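Most newcomers find our protein records easier to grasp once they have seen one. Each record describes a single protein and holds just a pair of labelled lines. A learned vocabulary of local backbone shapes supplies the integers on the structure line. Nothing more is needed to start thinking about how sequence determines fold. The record below serves as our worked example for the rest of this section.
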Amino acid sequence: MVERSHLNEYAPYTDIVSTDTLDVKQLSPDSKDESVTMIWLVAEAPNPGEFVNHWKFFFELPPKQQTVRFIHVNMTLDRRHNQNEVIGVLKARTVDYAAPDSGVHRLSFDMQLNATGGDLLRLLLERGRDKYLFTASGEGCRFWCQTVLRDLLEGRFILKKDVDQASTDLGFFIGSRRRSRRPIREGEFYQ
């Protein structure tokens, strides 16, 4: 694994605080300083009657007291002000359960550079990945994840073959008994 010397510009992490577009209230401060050992991309089971998965990331951290921990990174619809809103909010929180096991489909990516949770979150913030509008129908998490994967690839954190596989998988609806093609609906990043 490559050292993170070129990432020093991302430290310190005191500016990673909750805003209108970023919710880090449940992110433990120490997880920002810990090395990410693996990145997971996970598809949740669809809600009954729906034919779309919600996709999100988990940044795996070293175990603490024999418990595996993750930074759960999730772009979700911001329903605080209006149930019909398409504005996204990036939520990052620390969880201490086998989070990737909760999905119907999961991909794991080995880290190619030594980076902390704070390094990766800062990368997303500097690229404006916290400012996102979903489509009018509320879709767009797959496009957001695909964009983040490209950011991670450009930063040399993950391999191209992993991004290619994930991009293929993001183009499918994955249910308990079926898997079918589904176009990736593109949301929009804003300033």
